[in-house]
Amino acid sequence: MATRAEVTGLTLRIPTRVAGRPTFVHAATDVSITLAAGRVHALVGESGSGKSVLASTLTGLLPPGTRVSGRVVVDGIDVTPALGTPRHRIWGLLRGRVVGSVAQSAATSFTPTRTIGSQLLEAIEALGGTRSVDELADIARLPAWALAAYPHELSGGLVGRAAVAAALAGQPSIIVADEPTASLDRDLAGQVLDLLRDQADAGASVLLITHDVAGLLDRAVADDVSVMYAGRIVERGGAAQVWDDPRAAYTRALLAALPRNGLHVVPGDPPALTDLAEGVRFEDRVGGAL
Ligand SMILES: Nc1ncnc2c1ncn2[C@@H]1O[C@H](COP(=O)(O)OP(=O)(O)OP(=O)(O)O)[C@@H](O)[C@H]1O
Q1: How many whole angstroms from 40 Cα to the centroid of ligand 1?
Q2: Which atom of ligand 1 lies closest to the CA of 104?
Q3: CA-to-CA distance for 190 and 182, rounded, in angstroms?
Q4: What dotted CATH number matches 3-98+172-280?
Q5: pLDDT tens-digit readout, 180-215
Q6: Could you say which of 17, 72, 178, 230 has the lowest number of CB atoms within 10 Å?
Q7: Which atom of ligand 1 is nearest to 46's Cα?
Q8: If we measure between CA atoms, which residue out of 196, 199, 109 comes closest to residue 154?
Q9: Per-domain residue ranges for the chain?
Q10: Ligand 1: residues within 6 Å at CB?
Q11: Which atom of ligand 1 sits closest to the CA of residue 15?
Q12: What is the pLDDT of residue 107?
């Protein structure tokens, strides 16, 4: 199975200020993750655990001044030296063409005053894609009338599918989808997840960032799962193993919070990632509640 992207021992510290005092957000600590051809890798964890920042290393969009150690290889290219330089020419070659992004908020990723079809055409031309707008629409199961529509005329599900179509305009081999189902109901979310699954089945490597564990389970969409807590990967493995036999207390807590498992809300609050103590663990958060 070909490796499409590999993150190894990645630590990210984002400069920020708390009460006027300069400090760092511990967004990622010693993170390793592998994206392989033909597979959907789900990255799950509560809000603020560092999932989006980690994903932005694949597109070179880290916050300015982020301190980086570790290694990121995309499509065989070691992009580590370019991680802090969003305008580095390597990102112009990779963004959209090798790494396609499905935005967190699909609706706002389109210009409101232009039709979906014209924006897809523009993306294809800008990225030198060889698929036509109709082909993209076909892959994303967008009806023909949706191409002539303005973004606000489409339902959430259709905008979600249009966002997947846009991400595919440059025929990327890696697709990063950051909460692509965030504002969708269960059926519509399922349609978007199915599209991403189709892309993996056609050979792409998909990084699917979500806190919707129920949606992942319903569609059996993921092959691999990494669970992130406070900037660290606390569990990784094949989806069946992680869901059926979770090793980490945090994974068990996420699963117990699902309605089907009794809706046991994850106890306590996620830690702030500023001035995070070294080696902070979920077990410390819940104390004797486990
Ligand atoms: N530009 C930035 N400057 C300072 N801190 C940032 C910046 N971007 C993200 N962070 C911080 O990095 C940490 C991780 O954020 P991130 O968005 O990656 O979490 P997440 O797991 O994706 O959560 P969500 O699902 O809410 O997006 C948070 O503490 C966030 O406040």
Answers
A1: 23
A2: 27
A3: 11
A4: 3.40.50.300
A5: 888 788 888 888 899 999 999 999 999 999 988 998
A6: 17
A7: 21
A8: 109
A9: 3-98+172-280
A10: 14, 16, 25, 27, 45, 47-53, 63, 273
A11: 4
A12: 67
Name the residue at shortest CA distance from atom 7 of ligand 1.
63
Pocket test for ligand 1, best of 7, 10, 44, 51 (most atoms within 8 A of CB): 51
- If we measure between CA atoms, which residue out of 6, 179, 198 comes closest to residue 106? 179
- The model's pTM is 0.94
The dihedrals phi and psi of 200, each to the nearest 5 degrees, come to -65, -40
Structure confidence by residue, pLDDT tens digits, 113-165: 999 999 999 999 999 999 999 999 999 999 999 999 999 999 888 998 999 99
Separation CA 197–CA 169 (nearest Å): 17
Pairwise CA distance, residues 136 & 121, whole Å: 10
User: What's the pLDDT tens digit per position in 53-96?
Assistant: 999 999 999 998 999 999 999 999 999 999 989 899 999 999 99
